[in-house]
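Limitations
The structure tokens in this dataset are predictions for the assembled complex, not deposited experimental models. Users should treat interface geometry with appropriate caution, especially where small molecules or nucleic acid strands are included. An illustrative entry is reproduced here so readers can see what is and is not provided.
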Amino acid sequence: MARSTALAPAPERRAAATAAAGARPPTDRATRVVGAVFRGHSALIYLFLYVPIALVILFSFNAGDFAGELRGLSLRWYGEAFGDRFVMKALQTSLIVAFASATLATAFGTIAALALQRVPPALRAVYDGLTYIAIVIPGIVIGIASLVFFVNAFDWFNPLVGSLWPGSLGEAPVLNLGIPTVIGAHVLFTMAIVIVLVRARLAGMDRTLVEASYDLFATPWRTFIQVTLPQLAPAMLAGYLLSFVFSFDEYVIASFVKGQDTTLPILVFSQIHRPPVTPKINAIGTVILTISLSALFIVQLIYRRQTRQARALAEAAAAAEA
Amino acid sequence: MVQGPAAVAAPGRGRGRAVTALLLTPTSLWYLLLLLVPLAILIVFSFGERSPVGGYHPGLTLENYLRLPTRQAAFVNTLVLAVASTALCALLGYPLAYYLATRAGSRRTLLLILIALPFLTSFLIRTYAWFTILGANGIPAILGALGVSPRPVLLNTHFAILIGIVYNYLPLMVFPLYVSLERLDKRLLEASKDLGAGRWATFRQVTLPLSAPGLISGALLVFIPMMGEYIIPNMLGGGKVFFVGNALVDLFLQSRNWPFGSAAAIGLIMVVLITVSIYLFLTSRGRVQREVSQL
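Predicted assembly:
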């Protein structure tokens, strides 16, 4: 801001004077300069945001041995990445975690959002507060808290099950940190996201359709399946995909509760700390980016279609009234 | 909205309540077991003692809190860099948000999506991008080729962390700013001009005060997650610039001193809570209604 005004102090005062005198809106040089400064600043920010990502992708096609030097283009490092057993195992783990976390978050978050419509305001405020906390609390605290909970719960649960387990069934199951605990810890955050999205959608929903359904003697269940659910679907899908994207490349929480399992971000993080850093990281990174971007692209498509439908509905309603 | 739920719950009140309770069960379990109980455990642990094999030994002592000053550097580093990068985000984000809100025209939606997009893609990979850009073969090599000598060291400095934070968190500042600037009543700006105020005076006396809620929300959205930041100081600071996040990982996963780690975690939560309280105090004093509830 300071820059834009410092550039043109004197003409600016003149511009203001013309405006004050009731002349035509000022479109003089000062205005153009300020406009150009704003455009230039914004363009630089977009470059700042996108050049690093573009570089990661470009260097993934590097034929050379090091991530820092571009020596011709090749798909060599993609071959290395996909041929690496550990990378493929971590990718598989990450996909399992992301699918499970997104599915649980969407199911639990949606039914919670529906239920929260019917509870007393005081109770609703409590849940909204907890949802808010789950979203803003730093991931590192969620990670620690989950670790502390799981370790304590297992310390208490495993001996109990072990002592009660009938010997005829073989070894008693022992709970440990691993994929399920990563999913559980991720769901705390992703479920909160889904609750916020679905609640926002419910707030903007047309109640008359539900009432019409009851007037036509539909049962609550039928009304839910045929009226409410289709209207909620876009928010649920957006919540699902955002949860998926979050869970797929979350590092901090997973690093606390992963146990012996390794997700893709954890593998990437550890390889970055083990020089020399090869373009293999870039290849894996590009795969991660592609998966997240595809999910986000689908969210965007859904929202565009949804707003277009809403607009068409509103126009139709207006036309019907006229 | 308010009458509606009653209609849904109409057939059999008792059954309706049971269904509601059932629908809320998973969420309640998660909030209880993975949020409330763990936080309670952290509080209990923070007064305990470290057992010889690591982990927790019951006790009732303030020693862990009294030892917090030994990790003072981590807290100071985190706070200083958090404040500095929040300010830098505001400085860079304000003109951008202003441009998007007032001058972007029909491209606005696309430009907003382009701001959000990198933020929603892999944090780790975006930070890695700066790891290579600031590394020995990145900008320092380019400057060296241009004749700058000695080549500057950029990686593993405060500067690298600052760039990494601004790069990753800028969208969190731009969005609330955009929302408050977009809602700004343009007639007020015209009135200011009609009264003879120049561009700068109008900005300072009309635009800036009216967008203050957005600025405060943005600052909070940047500041809070940054307090728990671990990846950026680790990757771009090379472990030389220690953050609270790094201290926590160290205490819980390496030295396994859970009581001390718990005290540090509670300390972090307290800093965040105090910040949020200051925020709520500031915003409830001003004429803030919608921007806050929107976020």
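Some entries come with short summary sentences. For this one: DSSP finds 14 helices and two strands in chain B.
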